[in-house]
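User: My collaborator and I are trying to settle a disagreement about how two of our proteins should look. Neither of us wants to argue from intuition anymore, so we agreed to look at predicted structures for both before our next call. Could you fold the first one, then the second, and keep them clearly separated?

Assistant: That sounds like a sensible way to settle it. I'll keep them separate. The first protein:
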Amino acid sequence: MPRQPPRPARMLRNAERPAAAAGLSRLLPSRLLPDSNERPDLSVVLRVALHVAIVRTLYLRVRYGGWCVVSRGTRLKIGPGSRLLIPDGSFLFLGFAHFTPAPCAVHLGRGATLSVRGTVQIHRGTRVFVHDGARLEIGNRSFVNDCSTVTCFQHITIGSGCAISWNTNILDTSAHELAIGGQPRPRSGPVTIGDQVWIGTGATVLAGVTIGDGAVIAAGSVVAAAVPGQTLVAGNPARVVREDVSWH
């Protein structure tokens, strides 16, 4: 008998294509590599590889999932009942890069939560304190630069694509009772920083502040009130000095 020609591979039906694409996406190397604002640089990869605390990083991977990549010397204290929420495919880099010899310090109090989405960097010399029961959230491709301080007593949200420069201070509490006209003011208030926000060096963001998407905070500013999106604010207290701004 003559040989039958091989059957062509079955074509995927339209309904099957999204599921197949989703299955392939889970196998792509991009899910195993951190997202980046720039093309991967070999020197950066080597710096991370040479300074990573391998045992601590693997322990955190097993305990919390995701990747919390810790540099040697980083001071990470996780209190009872506190959580690191790092979804699969997300990366939190602690204590890498780049200009100060001081270590990064992250302290989560009892029942506190540090949540990241995508790739987040907290550089050397930066101090992050999340008080008992408080929640700190940071979005993809955002970084907190050297020697900055983030103090969270209630809830701080930092959006995606944010650049937080050196010596910046972000806090959602005054830690003291203040009365104006005999009326007490709340000690704490949530801080919300939108997407693609640039906070200049030495700036301070106070409790209860909301910063809109695309805003720019000039160096040394003290932000005590809401900042509209796509504006440049400067001064103490910070005021709008330019509108319709953008940055890259």
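The second protein, kept apart from the first:
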Amino acid sequence: MLGVRPVADLEPQHALIRVDYQLGRDGTRTALKTAESRRALDIPPALMQRLLALIEARGAGLNPYAFVFASRNGTGLARKVTRRALDRAVKAANLAAPKPTLHDLRHTHASMLIWLDYNLVDIQRRLGHRKPDTTLKLYAHQWKYREAQRSQIGAQLERLFADGTGSASGLPESVQRRALPAAASRW
């Protein structure tokens, strides 16, 4: 801990970020679209410590309304400033085109959660979607791809036909009777 009262939206003891509002284009706090958009996100404790260190380095550790990422005068960052920062990070990382947008980071996060096998409702809540259908519509292709990668059907079929005869000899007798006969070898 940095020994200062953290900003109001950060809960260091639980490594949580509360999302209660968003910044409008003019830098003022505006309401979120739905009640479900209000949420708490758990983050890695080391990341929480880095965020608190950023606030402390600016001397804003005692301000409960301080922004984690702020302009020199302490206000929220303009969209173009954050976009330029992302562009610099993309260039430094030598990422291939197309350049990701700020919203792409949200999609990347959702894709990572799917890859880590989090369920639909957990992801829906983390993204702040009102209904799970919204999350499913946006990311159905990710789940399909993940399921295909985890599928063992191909490997299991391979074991059944591993004897090289093309017969279903690896199947139980009751299933073998219903299986198609082995094709005549053409080779």
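Some points you might bring to the call about the second protein. Residues 10 and 17 are 5 Å apart (CA to CA). Residues 1-77 form one domain.
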